[in-house]
């Protein structure tokens, strides 16, 4: 069941990232103006953030299996719409709906916590989150390779079929879970502010991960520009291979979860944040031949992914140790806040690359995990 949930979350969340490497051909096919091409990614992220705030809390109110399957059916329909349209406005609406419905992954994560025993909850969540992170990391190279072979429509069609099959599989395999929140929907939404205000663990953990995910988004937004530039001159296939190597960082998720189960969350958080610092410090400090600098970037990508995944799982383990009836809302708030950090990182990184080049990106990226570590030094243990 744990591996099913891990695979499912990875497959679902990958839908958020397929379009990121295909903005060029999608814009040409739909007639989207070059200046508006960024809306493809932006609207997907907006849909996801809104889903985290308005759909994920339903996991504390409605029967979870039915909610997950309905979201996946809607996601499959949105993917088919994106694959079949030649209208820019319809594609952008489909992108928004893909983001909105892909939050099914964040209903599955607290579902996994509910199914696990308290003494192994961190390890279970870590394994599930490693699947989610692999989905994030693999989506971009897979989309590039499929588009090269079959055209950009193919990845959306294949994902729609896979998402539909996943909905049917989860309908068959998942147990039913009816939560007992005791609130109606609008009271449930109103409680989000109270949870944020009254849960210091949530605020601290969200701040750590917002900084780490900001660094992650900044790095992966800009590294392809650097790799295809005059210094390294890699092809898109070379960039895809580079991204695939970075997937190795996902191994940190179950390790971090196991350490959190052993009561070592505080030190694991420090290690994760310092890995983020090291990921940007390495290419700033190590200079040499083209091959050496490329190897350093590969190592930095793995180290950064390890830090981000370890910190993510440790944070969720801390939140899922709180009241079971608020887990979906806590998870939704946590993910929404750090996704905002990711949006800041990606937009800031693109601007820094245009204005100050790769060195400017690295110094900006270093500031994110370093800020998180300073917050950790000042924070109470959690």
TrEMBL record:
Keywords: Membrane, Transmembrane, Transmembrane helix. The keyword Ribosomal protein does not apply. The keyword Transmembrane applies. Residues 1-382 form the Major facilitator superfamily (MFS) profile domain. The chain crosses the membrane at residues 31-55, 67-84, 90-113, 125-143, 149-170, 206-227, 239-257, 269-288, 294-313, 333-354, 360-379. GO terms for molecular function: transmembrane transporter activity. InterPro entries: MFS, MFS_dom, MFS_trans_sf. PANTHER family: MAJOR FACILITATOR SUPERFAMILY (MFS) PROFILE DOMAIN-CONTAINING PROTEIN (PTHR42910:SF1), TRANSPORTER SCO4007-RELATED (PTHR42910). This is MFS transporter. It comes from Duganella fentianensis. The lineage of its organism: Bacteria, Pseudomonadati, Pseudomonadota, Betaproteobacteria, Burkholderiales.
């Amino acid at each position: 069941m744990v591996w099913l949930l891990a695979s499912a979350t990875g497959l679902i969340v990958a839908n958020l990232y397929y379009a990121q490497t295909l903005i060029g051909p999608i814009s040409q096919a739909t007639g989207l103006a070059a200046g508006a091409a960024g809306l493809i990614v932006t609207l997907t992220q907006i849909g996801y953030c809104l889903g985290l705030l308005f759909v994920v809390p339903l996991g504390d109110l409605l029967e979870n299996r039915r909610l997950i399957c309905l979201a996946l059916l809607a996601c499959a329909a949105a993917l088919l719409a994106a694959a079949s349209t030649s209208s820019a406005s319809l594609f952008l609406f489909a992108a928004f709906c893909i983001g909105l419905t892909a939050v099914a992954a964040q209903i599955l994560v607290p579902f996994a916590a509910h199914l696990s025993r308290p003494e192994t909850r961190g390890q279970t969540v870590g394994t599930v989150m490693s699947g989610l992170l692999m989905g994030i990391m693999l989506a971009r190279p897979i989309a590039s390779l499929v588009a090269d072979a079959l055209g950009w429509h193919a990845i959306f069609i294949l994902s729609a079929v896979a998402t539909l099959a996943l909905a049917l599989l989860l309908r068959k395999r998942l147990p039913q879970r009816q939560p007992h929140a005791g609130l109606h929907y609008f009271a449930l939404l109103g409680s989000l502010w109270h949870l944020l205000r009254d849960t210091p663990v949530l605020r601290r953990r969200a701040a750590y991960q917002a900084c780490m995910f900001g660094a992650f988004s900044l790095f992966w937004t800009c590294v392809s520009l650097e790799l295809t530039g005059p210094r390294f001159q890699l092809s898109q296939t070379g960039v895809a291979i580079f991204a695939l190597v970075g997937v190795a960082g996902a191994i940190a998720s179950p390790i971090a979860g196991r350490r959190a189960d052993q009561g070592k969350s505080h030190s694991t958080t420090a290690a994760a944040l310092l890995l983020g610092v090291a990921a940007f410090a390495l290419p700033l400090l190590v200079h040499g031949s083209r091959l050496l600098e490329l190897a350093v970037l590969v190592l930095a990508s793995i180290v950064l992914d390890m830090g981000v995944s370890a910190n993510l799982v440790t944070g969720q383990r801390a939140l899922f140790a709180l009241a079971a009836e608020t887990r979906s809302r806590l998870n939704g708030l946590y993910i929404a806040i750090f996704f905002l950090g990711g949006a800041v990182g990606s937009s800031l990184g693109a601007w820094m690359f245009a204005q100050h080049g790769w060195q400017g990106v690295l110094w900006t990226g270093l500031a994110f995990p370093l800020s998180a570590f300073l917050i950790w030094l000042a924070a109470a243990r959690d």
